[in-house]
Amino acid sequence: MNRSQLKIIALALCTFFYPVWAKAQVADTTIVRLMHEKHIPVLGLAFIDNNNVVLSKVYGELQPNIPAPANTVFNVASVTKTITAMVTLRLVNAGKWDLDEPIFHYWTDPGVADDPRSKILTTRHILTHQTGFPNWRWMKPSKKLAFEFEPGLKFQYSGEGMEYLRHALEKKFHRSLEQLADSLIFQPLQMNDTHLIWNDTMLDHFAVAHNEKGEALPIEKNSEPSAADQLKTTVTDYSKFLIWVMNGAGLSPALFNQLTSPASKIGENKFMGLGWAVYPDLKGQFGMSHSGIDPGVNTIVFVLPQSKRALLIFTNSDNGPQLYTDLVKGFLKQQGDAIVDTEMKH
Predict the structure, then answer these.
(1) Strand pairing partners for 55?
(2) Minimal CA–CA distance to 188: which of 228, 237, 225, 253?
(3) Which of 25, 153, 192, 296 is least surrounded by Cβ atoms within 10 Å, i.e. has the fewest?
(4) Which residue, among 104, 213, 92, 207, has the nearest Cα to 164 in the 3D structure?
(5) How far apart are CA 326 and CA 104, in angstroms?
(6) Domain with CATH 3.40.710.10 in the chain
(7) CA–CA distance from 279 to each of 271, 293, 305 (Å)?
């Protein structure tokens, strides 16, 4: 959304935080206190170690005096893009989709139909955020989609690119992205509380977004799936997904290697792979991450495939990153030299 930066110390969290947590047995009261101070109503937290979920918990209240249950549903904002990426790669792995075939064979947005650059745009450009598109067309004065540079030239984060891919997939397979994700990921992994569109059955256990003052925001009840935003999921469900991803997601070794290899540079030791940010050198191993920012929502996930560790943090507040930082500072103050800043613009 390019509204703000998500700047936290979360790679160190993923690499070092679980051992510290396990030894210190951090009191829940500390987290609840921080949530109260930062006006964060609900926090979802999970740690995975050696392919096992060693901590999975939801803190806070959905409404005053109504505790958030373990199956609380969060909007995870741009973390949605990880689902779209893995749906696409599963189709590539099955020989049903080609990363380097021009997208115009299946879809061309009317806004760029007369631009010759639309004829060279590929799925690889989209998943590595090298489309040349802005993040969202509504951010531009014309409100129309247009290329800002030739695809493949450089990294530029774009939700429009992911939506472009959704249209192409839906045109070819005659199924919605929700249906594709359900058959390829949600059902096989038994992610029964995960959906790309709104369902009113979520209402009584949904973590409503809140602004920086702690005020509730309107629920966006989307009836059409987005490839870039608005995934509704739980800590339990997304933990299953992270374990699946860190174990290769059923992809061929060659394709998984492409997924986790640097393709476009975001910053120092931070690159874009196929749908995931990739950190090629984290003390002898590589890492993967994605973050999400919507009004009243901040989320982030990390995966360390080689050590089989992962982390997720879901919050329903504009103040979510303040909690991340405070947690790390409080529990990793002896690990200062190991802390790594990361940021992703949305």
Answers:
(1) 47
(2) 237
(3) 25
(4) 104
(5) 47
(6) 10-80+178-338
(7) 6, 20, 12
Nearest in space to 264 (alpha carbons), one of 154, 120, 133, 147: 154
Do the Cβ atoms of 76 and 320 come closer than 8 Å?
no
Candidates 283, 280, 279, 299; CA nearest to 291 is 299
Question: Which token pair is 313?
Answer: 């943090």
Interatomic CA distance for residues 248 and 259, integer angstroms: 10
pLDDT tens digits for 72-82?
A: 999 999 999 99
For CA atoms 137, 8, 267, 11, the dihedral sign is: negative
d(CA 141, CA 285): 43
Helix 28-37 and helix 320-331: axis angle, to 10°?
140
Please, is 107 exposed, middle or buried when counting C-beta atoms within 10 Å of its C-beta (0-12, 13-18, 19+)? middle
Return the ∠ at Cα 123 (arms to 122 and 129), rounded to 5°: 95
pLDDT tens-digit map of 214-265: 999 999 999 999 999 999 999 999 999 999 999 999 999 999 999 999 999 9
End-to-end CA, the chain: 4
CATH code for the domain defined by 10-80+178-338: 3.40.710.10
| 232 phi, psi to nearest 5 deg | -105, 120
Longest dimension (CA), the chain: 61
